[in-house]
Amino acid sequence: EQAGKGEYDHFMLKEIYEQPTSLAQAVEGRIDDGIDLEEFPPGAFEGIDRVQFVACGTSYHAAMYGALSLTQAGVDARALLANEYGASSPPVDDRTLVVAVTQSGETADTLSALRRAVRKGARTVTVTNVVGSTAAREADDSLLIRAGPEIGVAATKTFSSQAVALTLLAGRIVEDALAGDGLSDLDSLLAAADRLPGDIERLLTESDAAEIARRYRDSRSYFFLGRGQGYPVALEGALKFKEITYEHAEGFASGELKHGPLALVTEETPVFTVFTGIEDDRTLANAEEAATRGAPVIAICPADHPAADVADAHLEIPETDPRLAGLLANVQLQLLSYHAAELLDRPIDKPRNLAKSVTVE
Ligand code: AGP
User: Fold this and answer.
1) Is the ipTM of this complex over 0.95?
2) Ligand 1 contact via 334 beta carbon (within 6 Å)
3) Is 153 touching ligand 1 by the criterion CB < 6 Å?
4) Using only C-alpha atoms, what is the Rg of the chain?
5) Can you tell me which residues the record assigns to a coiled coil (predicted)?
């Protein structure tokens, strides 16, 4: 097992550091003048007027991330927890596209939602890391995220590859659903996707996450805030943190803080705030609400961002398209969780009570 980890102490750290490669693989051959998905040529999604993503855990956060590219472009889309799909019983017909997002392709809750969608006559797609997995076989089509094997129970590189693959898939769906009109500022998005591996490489060598983890190691609870694509990243940051540190962590849409969670905020609750470039002034105002109650605010944003000046600490991300900035922030949060768990001497690759693939409902 040690051999497989190479120079790293844990698979999780190795997999975090593999992201420049896994993301280059995720986009390879899929970007030229536009979005070019071999599996889904132009017209592949003609007739689709509603998109539902179903997934669990980290994959659900990636699904939320992908759904935003569709709603922001004016397409009816939502991400649903696969284990709530039956109970919420959303409308499904033959003009509905149901996208199952599952890195393993074997998660029982997600398979059950996928089967329900098939029974209701939806068109189905699986976005997965595993060729020939059950979800890939049972859906009409599949899109591989090409992340390579992920051993750590905590999903890291598969999240970023899912989010990128889903953003590209969303771009193709938008072109068909809106009859030719694609995503806005497509050139900016594609240039950012092309730069992403290099941006992450740089971030990994310069990250202060280990120092920040040390500074806030004695906190009572850890909060994560974000808006737009920053919101699923905040949820993912909190999930990763609780999963491997066993400390209490919660993610919120930044505007929700004042609707309840603010009652929990004290000088012992650091607030990690993700800035993606979408309504950042509002997010900053929300972070300041926490700062006023004494909470340390840690801004995850580019160096010259206004939040970097007012926050107590700063985790830097390169400037990029707002639709991909969240993925850079997520890498900083992955490192933060990793280093916090290491300080606590947790079994990082195999957290208690958890399995890599959950094959029971
Ligand atoms: C997160 O770190 C977990 N490994 C977990 O939430 C996972 O994302 C979830 O169980 C779904 O797995 P899947 O992508 O294989 O369907």
Assistant:
1) yes
2) no
3) yes
4) 19
5) none
